[in-house]
Design goal:
The complex is a heterodimer of chains A (about 375) and B (about 475). Chain A is mostly helical. Chain A has 17 helices and no strands. The longest helix of chain A has about 35 residues. By secondary structure, chain B is α/β, with parallel strands linked by helices. Chain B is about 40% helix and about 15% strand. Chain B has 2 domains: about 190 residues, Periplasmic binding protein-like II (D-Maltodextrin-Binding Protein, domain 2, 3-Layer(aba) Sandwich); about 220 residues, Periplasmic binding protein-like II (D-Maltodextrin-Binding Protein, domain 2). In chain B, strand 4 and strand 5 form a beta hairpin. At the A-B interface, helix 8, helix 9 and helix 16 of A face helix 1, helix 4, helix 12, helix 18 and helix 19 of B.
Chain lengths: ~375, ~475
């Protein structure tokens, strides 16, 4: 025991110096990162050093080995990011280790939680508070209720209505379809393969999916050939081409369908796992008691996996309330299909109405809260079980 | 038994990951600010170093900051100026060319961020985020004033010769001022009262260029009777800027029926949208756009067509059998949007003035000889000597010279020598329109508060088109209702 300890203290004598050097290196890295064109300049200086002034000059003029400069910058970012965090924790815990044990045990948890709390404060709590304050300010920063009262006017009620439709339809659609698919696939031979196909869309980005679907919904005048899949089918059966993505009210279900297409896979995976978790004894007991398949499913399996259903529904519900990408890339919310998140963006960046944008952000925040509470309660209940 | 499906699943997952990794990048990159992307200081392919003493760079003298930069020791050589613009493609190349002489004469280099889509949004993010470009170009004077009021801009009156600025620019497309501050200087002007048409097909069919609204309607009816569609129209894009083409139509007709005073009162909302004069203008536009067969597919087609493609049917069979005949679009339009150049990237084989012509939007009320114009304003966010010099350069005719000589731009500086425009068909048409007009109205939507001019005026006219003009009263009322209480 004793020799090991001396060895350790010998090493820890060097540690502060190592930490100091590390901190200096990290600071130098940060300096390069915050400097505009830092990567180019650093590489240019290096070129000057090894006697390649032409290469250095080209870099400084925004030409030459730009790709190498970017790689260099990425390497520095990686070093500063990963190394900096490691240094922070090692340095801080080394420092605390030197305190008497009584203080050490009290301080040590804060060393590890502290940075996270600080970042949470800077990036979450502060903006949230600033947003709520901002929603009560006019353009010049004076107190006003106009931002909030304007939300009670026609166009904004329409937006809130759309969000409500989204919440109900997209969540119910994804969870219902996911449950159905999970239950049916449980009984087929190539289950994994079938599930893969349903799960594939979940891996797509919302914008990517919207681009794909905008080709499905594409519209051409009746005199032109239809390259949109849906209109090609529709007109083949004698219909007039329908502008699925731009004509209210058909555009809202058209957009919600994209969300369902994306989220069903997620619902299916979670619910399928839950269904497989229902013990065979319970199912057999139900069968012996004479339950038919429908009773078995709705009377036994669904109540048992209720927790998973709530978790999936709340997760998809929150994603749906915050829906932005699909509406933004489909129409920008222009055809009576606007939603809160999109309007928040347009008020802020196009109309310069920061106050109203802040009010909309607060509405979204408040709307998500109850869903989060349901989710947390359910989580606690599951833990208690 | 179990092994096969799971390997398939892994394979599928990998494919999906790759697709997933590609798709956001592909959709995000056009809008991302490319701060680190080097912009050509000359045209593409031209070396950065100026050609040695062959051509004397054309940079004017007699401007304080510019003269400093041109000093014999080139005091700002090696410095760099970052400027964000919405010009890409041919326009981007022309802008870079316009800066080349200044760059070689002063040694100042330019980093141009060309944003194809959502330029205004990205600029706002950069300005609000505290890392704005040194200079930027905006088409909306309202936005410029808003930034100025918020203290985000450098007052150009602090170092520029205000008397000279005012003398060299007209009041309509001139410096953007408020309370003695100059927040923006005009750079490039555009004429919006232009209609593009296929010259040879017009001649082959014996169609005459219309000079009055009634002639326009008669011609449209004749084209419909001949089995085609008279108008090419779109309301789409770029990006979130959907609907501006429709507001241009309305503005044109308001100017040509009600005159400039009324038009300017409309901008400040002294004249409401529900005013009979505005409604009459909407009806006149609606007649041209929503009469069955005037636009192939009607209002739905207008909403579903992007600004890049409405004229494509005009090029049917090498413009011999156009599917649509006339598009009202400003003078900045050009070969970048012609289908052959757009899809191949090679210079278009269609020549403006030979294949595709431009005529002035016909008069409606002979007493109101107006035309509509717009301008691109330069604003300055960082105060450094080299930025001052660059801003001053952009205010001079020479700041646009190369672009003018490429036959594609009009300077807002009235000291611009007329011979620079010589030989360019498009610019001659534009000059004739301006010369024949007794007044010029600046794009009204660009002067209205942003929540109307870039907001409800756009969205409501899109809604109007979606309903083929049947809901005019509701649309007008909705725009009036959205007018902000405090501007």
């Amino acid at each position: 025991m004793a020799p090991a300890r001396t060895h350790e203290s010998g090493l820890s004598r060097f540690l502060p110096i190592a930490v100091l050097i590390g901190l200096l290196a990290a600071a130098a890295g940060v300096r390069i990162l915050i400097e505009p064109h830092g990567g180019q300049n650093l590489l240019a200086s290096f070129y000057d050093l090894i006697g390649n002034p032409a290469g250095a000059e080209a870099l400084r003029n925004g030409q030459g080995d730009q790709f190498l400069a970017k790689l260099l910058l990425a390497a520095i970012a990686l070093f500063v990011g990963v190394g900096g965090i490691w240094l922070l924790f090692t340095g801080a815990s080394t420092l605390v280790e030197r305190f008497p044990p009584k203080f050490r045990d009290r301080i040590l948890p804060w060393v590890f939680i502290g940075p996270a709390l600080l970042l949470l404060g800077i990036y979450l709590v502060y903006p949230a508070v600033a947003t709520i304050i901002g929603s009560f300010q006019d353009q010049k920063g004076a107190f006003t209720l106009a931002n909030w009262s304007s939300l009670a006017t026609g166009p904004f009620l329409e937006i809130l209505r759309n969000n409500a439709i989204w919440l109900v339809a997209a969540t119910a659609g994804s969870v219902g379809l996911g449950l159905l698919v999970a239950a049916l696939f449980d009984r087929i031979k190539r289950e994994a393969l079938a599930k893969t196909f349903v799960f594939v869309p979940y891996a797509l980005s919302l914008v990517g999916a919207t681009v794909i679907w905008s080709f499905v919904y594409a519209w051409q005048p009746a005199s032109q050939p239809q390259f949109g899949l849906l209109n090609a089918i529709w007109t083949a059966f004698g219909g007039e081409p329908v502008p699925w993505s731009t004509k209210f009210p058909i555009n809202i279900p058209a957009e919600i369908l994209i969300m369902i297409w994306l989220q069903t896979g997620f619902a299916m995976v979670v619910l399928s796992a839950a269904i497989k978790g229902v013990s065979t004894e319970v199912i057999e007991a139900a069968r012996l008691d004479g339950a038919n398949e429908r009773q078995l499913f709705f009377g036994v399996i669904v109540p048992i996996i209720r927790g998973s259903i709530i978790t999936v529904a709340t997760t998809i519900g929150i994603a749906t309330l915050k829906i932005f990408d699909i509406v933004m890339s489909m129409s920008g919310g222009r055809n009576h299909d606007d939603v809160v998140a999109v309007r928040m963006f347009t008020e802020m960046f196009q109309f310069f109405n920061d106050g109203r944008a802040a009010a909309l952000a607060t509405v979204l925040f408040i709307a998500v809260l109850p869903v989060m509470v349901i989710n947390l309660r359910n989580f606690r209940r599951q833990q208690a079980m | 038994m179990r092994k096969k499906p799971s390997t398939m699943a892994v394979f599928a997952a990998v494919v999906v990951l790759i697709v997933g990794a590609c798709s956001p990048a592909a959709t995000a990159s056009p809008t991302a600010p490319s701060a680190t992307t080097p912009a050509a200081t000359g045209g593409p392919g031209t070396p950065t170093a100026p050609p040695p003493a062959a051509a004397v760079p054309k940079v004017p003298t007699g401007y304080a900051e510019l003269d400093l930069a041109l000093g014999s020791d080139k005091p700002y050589a090696g410095k760099s100026v970052n400027i964000q613009t919405q010009w890409v493609g041919g326009e981007g190349t022309n802008f870079a060319a316009a800066l080349a002489d200044f760059a070689s004469a002063t040694g100042i280099s330019f980093k141009i961020d060309s944003i194809a889509s959502s330029h205004e949004t990205i600029l706002r993010t950069r300005i609000e985020g505290g890392s704005p470009p040194d200079l930027a170009v905006l088409a909306q004077p309202t936005a410029v004033v808003a930034y100025g009021d918020a203290g985000k801009l450098i007052d150009l009156a602090t170092f520029m010769d205000v008397t000279k600025l005012n003398a060299e620019h007209s009041a309509t497309i001139g410096p953007v001022t408020k309370g003695g501050h100059i927040w923006g200087i005009p750079y490039k002007a555009d004429v919006k009262s232009t209609v593009w048409y296929p010259i040879k097909a017009f001649a082959a069919k014996g169609y005459q260029v219309p000079t009055t609204y009634d002639e326009l309607v008669t011609l449209a009816d004749k084209i419909v009777a001949d089995g085609s569609h008279p108008f090419c129209a779109s309301a789409g894009g770029p990006g979130t800027a959907t609907g501006w083409q429709l507001t241009d139509w309305v503005e044109e007709v308001v100017l040509k029926t009600q005159g400039l005073d009324y038009y300017n009162k409309w901008i400040t909302h002294e004249v409401k949208f529900t005013d009979p004069g505005i409604k009459a203008a909407f009806d006149k536009v609606g007649k041209l756009l929503f009469t069955p067969n005037y636009v192939d597919g009607g209002g739905t087609a207008i909403v579903n067509t992007d600004q890049k493609t409405p004229m494509d049917p005009m090029f049917n069979q090498d413009t011999a059998a156009p599917g649509c005949w006339m598009q009202k679009i400003p003078t900045w339009y050009g070969p970048d949007f012609f289908p052959d150049q757009r899809t191949s990237g090679q210079p278009s084989k269609y020549v403006i003035g030979e294949d595709i012509g431009i005529f002035a939007f016909p008069a409606i009320d002979p007493a109101q000889k107006g035309a509509e114009g717009s301008g691109d304003t330069v604003l300055m966010m960082k105060d450094r000597p080299e930025v001052r010099a660059a801003a001053e350069f952009l205010s001079t005719p020479e700041g646009l010279q190369k672009w003018i000589e490429a036959g594609s731009a009009i300077s807002s500086n009235n000291k611009t020598p007329a011979e620079w425009y010589a030989g360019a068909y498009k610019l001659k048409v534009a000059a004739d329109i301006v010369a024949n007009a007794s007044f010029i109205g600046f794009d009204a939507s660009d002067l209205m508060p942003a929540s109307v001019g870039a907001g409800t005026f756009w969205t409501q006219t899109v809604d109007w088109a979606n309903n083929n003009g049947t809901n005019t009263d509701a649309v007008l009322k909705a725009i009036d209702d959205s007018w902000p209480a405090t501007p």
